[in-house]
Design brief:
63 residues; transmembrane helix; mainly alpha; Transmembrane Fragile-X-F protein; transmembrane; rod-shaped
Length: 63
């Protein structure tokens, strides 16, 4: 488990034991941000692969 997962588990446990009175979206914010970052990275990688494939096809078509 990484630091984000540990932080999320700790915040959830604190919320469930009524030690903190934060809203659930704030408690789950580290996990939400981490998941969003992973999705952005995957989308950027897919776009890079698509561009590379299109460039190679265009280069092969001009030969």
């Amino acid at each position: 488990m990484g630091i984000v997962e540990v932080l999320t588990v700790v915040l959830v446990l604190l919320k469930l034991t009524d030690i903190i009175a934060w809203s659930w979206w704030l408690v789950l914010l580290p996990a939400i941000l981490s998941f969003s970052l992973y999705i952005i990275i995957i989308v950027v990688k897919l776009i890079m692969v698509l561009v590379a494939v299109l460039v190679v096809k265009k280069r092969d078509a001009t030969r």
